[in-house]
Amino acid sequence: MPFTSATAAVPFQSGSAPAWYRFRHGSFECTVASDGPITLRPPTALVPSAPQAEVERLLSAAFLPTDSLTLDQNALVVNTGEKVVLFDTGFGVDRSITRDAGRLLGRLRASGIDPASVDIVAITHGHLDHAGGLVDERGRPNFPNARVAMGAADYDFWTDLSKTSNGGWVGGFVRGARRNFKPYRDRLIPLGDRTEIAPGVTAISTSGHTVGHHVFVVESEGRSLWVTGDLAHHHVLSLRRPEWVDAFDTDTAAGAAKRREVFGQLARERQTVLAYHFPFPGIGHVTAEGEGFGWNPARLTTVL
Ligand SMILES: [Zn+2]
Description:
alpha+beta, 7 helices, binds zinc ion
C-alpha cells in the first residue's frame, strides 16, 4: 500500500519546487517565472498531419510519454539596470485550455519581483497563453505601470471581433485578447522589424505562427539571448520535424519556413535561446540534427 503524508513515518512535504529561476546575462539580471504547464492530448493535437508512428518514435526516443505533450510557459523578466522588461504573461485567469496555468504573478512575487516595477511587457504574439496574464479577473491591469510592446498586425488580428464567428479556440483567443489589451490600448508600443524597445532589447519580425509574431534579442556585454516565443512549441517534435504542420500556426507554410530559417540561424551562430514552451526554464541551445534540430538544455546556475 502506498504511503500518504498522513501514514508516512515523516510527513511528506507538499508543494512544488520553486518555479522561478534566476541567471545573469552579461550585466543584466534575468528571471524566468513559470505560468504553469499546458497538456495537449494526444500529441497530434499539435502536429495533426504527422505520421503517428514517427511521433511516437521521436517521443519515446526522448524518454517522453507518447500519449500527450506537456508545454511549459516560461515568462522571462530582464532587469537591464534601467528598465524591467517582462516577455509574455501566460494564461492569466483563463481556464479554457488548462487548469494548471495562471501562476505567473505569484511566482514573480515569490522571486522578489513586484509586477508594478515592470516598465514594458513585450508580447511575442497575441495568443492567450502569452497575453492572458495582462489583466486580472475584473479586467484591471496586472502591470499598472507598464507599456505593452507587440506587433501591430497581431494586435489588429487578435482584437478583430469578426474572427470570433470562426468558432473553436480562435474565437476564444480573440475575446481574451480584447479583454487583456483593453486597459493598455493607450500605451502600446507597436513593433516593426528591428524595433529597440529598451536599451539592449530588440524585436525582430518573424511572422508565420501569427501575422505579427516577433522574437526578441536581449544583448548585453556582447552576448545575445533570443526569446523565441512560439517559433517552436515542443522541444522534440517541433525541432526534429520543423516542417510538420503546427495546429496553432495561422499560416502553416509560413510558420514552418520561419521555424526552419530562424532555428537554422540560431544553430549556426550557436546562440542562447529562451524558448517559451520548452521544459522549464527553457534556456538552451539548438544544434543541427538529422532533418531538423536538437535541443541542448543549458546547465542551470545555482550560485549567482
Ligand atoms: Zn504559445
